[in-house]
Amino acid sequence: MKVRLLAAAAALLLPGPVLADTLIDNIAGLSVDRGGQVTRFEAMVIDDDGRVAEILQAGQRPAQAVAFREDGRGRTVVPGMIDSHVHLMELGLAQLTLDLTGTKSLAEAQARITAYAAAHPERPWIVGRGWDEDLWALGRYPTAAELDLAEADRPVWLVRSDGQAGWANGAALALAQVGATTADPPGGRIVRAATGRAPSGILIGTAMELVAGKVPPPRATDRDLALHEAQNLLLERGVTAVADMGTTLEDWMTFRRAGDANRLRIRIAGYAASVPEMVLIGGSGPTPWLYNDRLRLGGLQLVLDGTLGSRGAQLKAPYADDPGNSGLWQMNGTQLRNNMSRAAMEGYQVAIHAAGDAATAEALSSIEELVPDYGGDRRWRIEQARLVDPADIARFGQHGILASLQPLAGDTSVAAARVGSERVERLSPWQALAHAGVPLAFGSDSPAGSADPWAAIAALSGDPQRSGINRAQALAGHTATAAYAMFADGRFGRLAPGERADFVVLDGDPLQADAGQLPRIRVLETWIGGIKVHDTQAGSGARSADAPGR
Questions:
Q1: What fold does the segment set 88-212 form as a domain?
Q2: Which of 181, 394, 424, 447 has the greatest number of C-beta atoms within 10 Å?
Q3: Does residue 135 register a pLDDT over 50?
């Protein structure tokens, strides 16, 4: 692993081109503002600071002489995609561990676990993620005994696809001392065997930490490699900036090491995982933008409930497929308001994870109570909002609240079964929120969801009658509105004079492609700050320059 990391780092430190004004010519350029208004153009000038200096229409020439010209060959150019909700280090670490994504049966998962364990005899734990019992048609959660059949000699800990439940084998449960007398922690649940109180092997919500806390933490070199892998994956898909939800101190130091070494390519707006980490990283207020607008800790994420997939989203009425369960509160209303107040009084933005309708209502109430004391441009964020009571839609349109939504949420295939036919129309209420004037920012929740913005745009705009979102609005939610949602408007998110020249070269026009063509549009090149950082034709992960020295 160290050899691989050093080779990657060496490639990243290759000298880049001399920086000077550059004309990007002969392009089918387009940009969109937060209102969905589209601007088309045929050329742009990038200054030596990596910002857009001019946008040129047909027949227009640059106001001043330029040093370089890049022929776009008539290809489509759009702003770089922004993922408004991602867990960046989890995404990267997922590339380095066991991946059960897409397994279609318990037997297939067990075979993959056994093969992975055999291939890594040196690892004291087998860790991974991506399993989904619904795809296996089990009708129940898997058990520790079934995991023991794949690997019993070493502890195994595997996180569910939505990140809200974990599957442990017998060795892991024993090492964590999770037994019949272990109490459920606040905000968590230890799933018990069908008979008795013995743990079945599944831990949900905060109970996951009982086992996860025993897993040896990644080394600094592992984290550095994970960030490298995550950046590669995102750049290949045209993602140039992310809102990192749940930034820990270890994550922040990984980002800082990359920035110090000129290895930080994408732009990261961090939302701290807790108030103590927020204070340790930012001190008495948000950090400035560092490394030429590549890194900032500006907010706090507060997790109020879980997800529909693991039946941890807090609902106003019980789950249709689990009538005795209404979800899990991961913090109570008093804790939520205290944490929000602490963040708001020091100028941090607050992002509240609230997936269920009860949690969403509680998040809205907490914002309404705090607004009189913490007015101004706060841009309160509610993350997920998977199920919303129609009576609460209008409340979103007040106090400048933003909705941060995940069109390709990992629980999409089972959400209808979770809530039942009477509530299914309340799922993913994009149309109602848009009509209420709520700014909509879109993200992936990766690694729980797919980090593919083009598939997300296709899902959003494939049926405008249902979603109420047209193609331009879907693109805005991945660019201009996404930047606004992280207080980065005016810095990046559009192709407009004064903003960073972050853009993607595509082999088709996303606003003109039909619904079937849109998911197949390919990212040919990704540019950040006027420097090409990914080129498909040069090979996956190839880049002409990486140093953010503008």
A1: Diaminopimelate Epimerase; Chain A, domain 1 (3.10.310)
A2: 447
A3: yes
Report the greatest alpha carbon distance in the chain: 79
Token pair 């001392």 in the structure block, residue:
177
pLDDT at 467: 62
Query: Nearest Cα to 114, choosing from 141, 137, 147, 143?
Result: 147
Q: Do domains 1-80+494-550 and 88-212 have the same CATH topology?
A: no
Per residue in 261-284, pLDDT (tens digit) is: 999 999 999 999 999 999 999 999
Query: For residue 440, how far is the Cα from the chain centroid?
Result: 15
CA nearest neighbour of 83 among 360, 406, 473, 532: 406
* One-letter amino acid of 83: D
pLDDT value at position 11?
A: 41
pLDDT band at 1 (very low <50, low <70, confident <90, very high): very low
Note the pLDDT tens digit of each residue in 204-240. 999 999 999 999 999 999 999 999 999 999 999 999 9
Structure tokens, 47: 């200054």
pLDDT at 409: 82
Q: Would you kindly state where each structural domain of the chain is located, as residue ranges? A: 1-80+494-550, 83-87+220-493, 88-212
As a whole number, mean pLDDT of residues 377-398 equals 95
Does residue 384 surpass a pLDDT of 90?
yes
315 phi and psi angles, rounded to 5 deg:
-105, 155
The strand ranges marked E within 48-187 are 52-56, 68-71, 76-79, 81-86, 98-99, 126-131, 156-160, 165-168
Q: For residue 150, what are its two tokens?
A: 């794949």
Region 323-330: mean pLDDT is 96
- Can you identify the CATH homologous superfamily of domain 1-80+494-550? Urease, subunit C, domain 1 (2.30.40.10)
DSSP state of 500: B
Distances (CA, A) of 167 to 83, 207, 335, 411, 509: 28, 11, 28, 17, 43
The two structure tokens encoding residue 177: 């001392």
What pLDDT was estimated at residue 539? 54
Model confidence band, residue 463 (pLDDT cutoffs 50, 70, 90): low
For residue 399, give the amino acid letter: H
Q: Which residue has the tokens 């991961």?
A: 330
Query: What per-residue confidence (pLDDT) applies to 12?
Result: 42
| Count of residues making up the chain | 550
Q: Are strands 199-205 and 126-131 parallel, antiparallel or unpaired?
A: unpaired
* DSSP character at residue 358: H
How does DSSP classify residue 99?
Answer: E
Written as one letter, the residue type at 375 is G
pTM metric for this prediction? 0.91
Q: Are strands 295-303 and 267-272 parallel, antiparallel or unpaired?
A: parallel
| 68: nearest Cα among 27, 19, 26, 28 | 19
Query: Which architecture characterizes domain 83-87+220-493 according to CATH?
Result: Alpha-Beta Barrel (3.20)
Residue 465's pLDDT band, with cuts at 50, 70 and 90, is: low
| Dist. CA 136–CA 414, nearest whole Å | 12
Tokens describing residue 147: 């995991």
- SS3 state at 169: coil
- Mean pLDDT across the chain: 92
């990140």: which residue's tokens?
163
Q: Is 235 helix (H, G, I), strand (E, B) or coil?
A: helix
